[in-house]
Amino acid sequence: MSNESALAESIGRAVLAAIQNVSTMTTTASGPPQATSAPTTYNYTPGPATPTTSTGTSYRSVPFPSVHQRTATHSRFGRKNKACKHYTRDVVCLPFSSASTFRIPRGDSRANLARDGLIGKISFTSDWSEAQLKEEMSAIFRRTFALSMGQSFPFEYLSTVKGCKRLMKPNVSSSFLWGGKEVASISSASCLYIMALISKPLQEPEELSDSDLESPVGLRRRVHTVSPSTSESELISQGSENERMQESPSHQRMLSTVPSSQRESEARCQETESSTQESESQGQAEDLRQVFPYNVAEFVPVYLEEDEALEEAIQRSLLEEWDVPAVNTLKSSEMLSKEEIAGLLQAHSERVITSGTRQIYISRANVWTTALRVFKRPSFAESCDKLYVTFTSDEHDAVEDAADLGGPRREFFRLLVKAIFQDSGAFEGTPNGCTPRLNMLHLQNGVYRTIGRMMSTIIVQGGEPPAFLSPSVVDYIVSGDILQVHVSPDDIGDPDLRENLNKVQHATLQDDLEKAVSCCDSWRYQVEGLPVVVTMANRDLFVKNAVLYHTVVQRQSCLDQLIDGLSHYGVLSLLRENPSLRVLLNIPGEDKGQEADFVAGILKPSYSVLGSNRRAKEELIVVKFREFLQCVENKELRDTYGDRTLTNDEEAFLKILSPGHILAFATGSSKVPAIGFHPAPKLMFIHDEKKHLPIAHTCANELHLFVNAKTMADDDEFNYCFLVALMNGSLFSTI
């Protein structure tokens, strides 16, 4: 037993010595030579162990060579570098366009881009530099745009518009650097959109295989010796004939030794083959026409070399392509929804409005006069700051203490729209909407231009849209062409003239037509181009040109000034790029029966937690509020008061009260602004037994309703409290 223990101890010492030797060799190889201690001798003879000299090294202190040892200079508390985020996106490249917004390509349009090689894929990280991204983009689209090695691909990033299926050019400074993090922030979850700043070259026919058809380069080389009328099929057949004529002499001698019958059969076979080759050549020529649909002799000058001719042909084709005026691809079937319009305008507003504010003072009693003084100043046209509106008190000739956080500005825009069409004297009403009134003083003072500037400011800065113009006026604003204006007699403001033209249009007998035309004799001979003799065949043309003269031609100077003012904030270009935005100016054809439900849907209740004691009370108040809206719309509110005695002012206010008054009381705007409400309107609840009248916070777009025993009672108290609140805030709720 003692021999076995001695053997085990000897083996352990041998293993320890081996580990020390390996550790010493590793240290020597990785650093400068160091002094080592003398080797320790061990007794391997069986029997009692002999005393040996201890090294002072334990089993635990010996480092294993397979375990990485931390250097002494490495801190255990060292910071690790933050990992970069990795992104993989589809790159969608749109062709160059001067427009400011673009529709996101989907369906067939995206398939066409993929077919043209304008869709690729990129992987990058957040720490990539702008140069790395440009190099990667150039590599992706080098073949599509025929870029040479080392040539950079010029492009521009496009960002998605929130809440709208549109793209826009980001509003950044010229020194802004597009790194990986910045590019990822403007891309969607799966796509990165860019716009090429160069045009895609024409598809090169040389990319086709030589085995399929003869290269067009060869065709261009032979164009010097071929008449301009020579077709591609003739060129190809001529080449095949030349090849057949160049047969070797030995082959001709072999034909002479063949019997005549055999030669005839071979001739028939050759004739069949030649006809087959000719049909194939014609098919190849047809394929060539589809790929290269030009007659080579038409655009290649004889005196130019082939490279110069090819370059000139490409440049000429590109010039012809870009000289064609851009056609608006937005069809009537692709009109934008209200949400998309609001998102588009919100993005445009954030891009054009600067960060500063412009203080203006407005009198509610003289909105038009005080607003005109501000908007007609030349400095106003040069400023793109947001308006900060302060109303002067009409009773005490003092300044109100309300800070403009959005509510006073929306109220001012609502009052300004009313003043433009009712108090300015620049418009007249027609059955189809408002049209400019020819006012020479306004025309000389540029009032119509100032009105256009007002409309642009209202649209961009969050006011309710000035949608009171007739469709014919909007047609001229959007198109800028008189011939594209659609008119009818109802576009005329003069009632007598409108009635006479309606009689002409609806006359069924020639006698009735002549009587109706005779009523127009006082002015029709002064208009050049109108038919002198009006018959049933040309009466529609007579009515159309007459209406066009009275509504557009006579007022064209006024309309041109209005259009010039709408260019403020870039609204005019936005209207012409997106015809669906004409709803911002067109008189709306809304269903008045849905007005109460519409207002109730805008004011979203902010309930307490479901299941709480307050939740049931708040739901009852919402029911009473929506019943109040329905009674206002149906003119049944007076019946709900029963035997309650109302003052004369309250009786008069009931006659004009509408759901729009409630929306104006809560938000400052009787309609939804063009860019939407920010923040979203809310219906808040306050549980207080001492207060009863509703309170509005127009800056926050909140309507506070008090929940207590009085407002929850089964009587007319809630309705009467709401009526009193609206009358007390009549300055805010007047529409």
Q: How much helical structure, as a percent, in the residues?
A: 40-55%
Largest sheet: 6 strands, mixed
Described by the principal axes of the CA atoms, the overall outline is flat
| Strand line-up of the largest beta sheet | 2-5-4-6-1-3
Low-confidence segments: 27-81, 205-263, 287-306, 318-333, 394-399, 731-735
Residue share in β-strands = 5-15%
Q: How many helical elements?
A: 31
Average pLDDT rating: 74
Number of strands: 14
Number of domains: 5
N- to C-terminal distance: 113 Å
Radius of gyration: 43 Å
Structural class: alpha/beta
Tell me what the structure shows.
Residues 45-58, 272-284 have a biased composition (Low complexity). This protein has 735 residues and is an alpha/beta fold. It folds into 5 domains: 1-72, no CATH class; 86-196, Ubiquitin-like (UB roll), CATH 3.10.20; 205-238 and 265-323, no CATH class; 338-356 and 425-584, no CATH class; 593-733, Hect, E3 ligase catalytic fold (2-Layer Sandwich), CATH 3.30.2410.10. The chain contains 31 helices and 14 strands. The chain has a 6-stranded mixed β-sheet. The chain is flat, with a radius of gyration of 43 Å.
Overview features:
46% helix, alpha/beta, Ubiquitin-like (UB roll), 5 domains, 735 residues
